Amino acid sequence: MSFSTMLFVAFIAIVSIQVIYYLSFLFAFATKPAEKRLKQNLPVSIIVCAKNEAKNLKENLPALINQKYPNFEIVLVNDSSSDDTLEVMKTLKNQNDNISIVDVKENEAFWGNKKYALTLGIKASKNDFLIFTDADCLPVSDMWLANIAGHFSNAKSIVLGYGAYRKKPLSLLNKLIRFETLMTALQYFSYAILGLPYMGVGRNMAYRKELFFNNSGFNNHMHVKSGDDDLLINEMATKENTAICFTKASFTLSEPKSSFNNWFYQKRRHVSTARLYKVKHKALLGLFYISQLAFWILALFCFLIMDNWQLVLILFCLRLFVQYASVGISSNKLLEKDLILLIPILDLFLVITQLFIFITNLISKPKHWK
């Protein structure tokens, strides 16, 4: 068998793997209608952990305070801030009876560890049903809380939501950030629907306090600086106890990083936790990424080497078509329609960036959550 033939056979195999993945995403999430379940009588606690977030708290807390929900408290956790975060929290508390404050002092054993601060906030909360978001996140509607809480039930004790980023016109970096966020959501929503939930994002997720403590909280990975969201969900989530919520009123909106270096470092921290996922999740996610990278590399070599480039083009277009169907429909559902035309370019950029993140993390490890 000639080298070009072996290359083409490998390309067929990679395209087949990619098509299977994207068809799975298509039929699991992209074609699934959003279920609107509103719950107004469940006592819930919103927990916001903030470190040097005075400005964001002033801008975003009113949207939490004004949620149309009759029975909720807001637990504000000040994680050893050096700015006016605590003063802003106290001002808001004086104006609202349903706000409580947890002031976390510096602790040598847990310095720079968001999980320690979150644990104190969870312990201080009055209710069993906990909703998590960040200080830089803004609910897109005053029905956010009702939508997320509505997916709790006797069986469902984890709710995974969508945390979007603001759009910045004419910014390729902004589109890359939102595309990566979209692809991550497409995967964790799809995996949850298929009975393999593996992560959530701390910008918009919920779980029961009872489940948290039955899992011994963050004890198994307290030494890892990141992972207060994905590692915890990876441990606790099952097919039976996990629900997803992607109604448009349930989204949160965050300010994206404005420089590539800042975003790159943020993603380094996020990616560094994946090595601690369950083996089945690491295998599935690893195969998807390797096949993504191999698709572009093999496509390039096949176009350059093979005489029958038309066959390569057919396979190339087949994979792009299935990707467009899956990611395109999902983009529309998650209000990211402006990304659709750029999917191949953003996909290639993201694959290259993730490769550099992986290599960089092998050389040095990111340290703190802020």
Q: What does this 3D model show about the protein?
A:
The chain is of the alpha/beta class. The protein folds into 2 domains: 3-30 and 280-363, no CATH class; 44-258, Spore Coat Polysaccharide Biosynthesis Protein SpsA, Chain A (Alpha-Beta Complex). Helix content is 51%, strand content 12%. It is built from 12 helices and 10 strands. It has helices at residues 3-30, 54-65, 85-95, 114-124, 144-149, 172-193, 209-214, 230-236, 260-272, 279-305, 309-333, 343-363, and strands spanning 44-50, 72-79, 99-104, 129-134, 137-139, 158-160, 163-165, 205-208, 242-244, 252-254. Helix 2 links the parallel strand 1 and strand 2. The longest helix is centred in the first third of the chain and has 28 residues, at 3-30. The chain is elongated. The protein starts with a helix and ends in a 7-residue tail after the last helix. The mean pLDDT is 92. Residues 45-212 form the Glycosyltransferase 2-like domain. The chain crosses the membrane at residues 6-30, 284-306, 341-363. This is Glycosyltransferase. Its EC number is 2.4.-.-.
Give me the secondary-structure topology.
Elements (H helix, E strand, L loop, with lengths): L2 H28 L13 E7 L3 H12 L6 E8 L5 H11 L3 E6 L9 H11 L4 E6 L2 E3 L4 H6 L8 E3 L2 E3 L6 H22 L11 E4 H6 L15 H7 L5 E3 L7 E3 L5 H13 L6 H27 L3 H25 L9 H21 L7
Parallel strand pairs: 1-2, 1-4, 2-3, 6-9, 7-10
Antiparallel strand pairs: 4-8, 5-10, 6-8
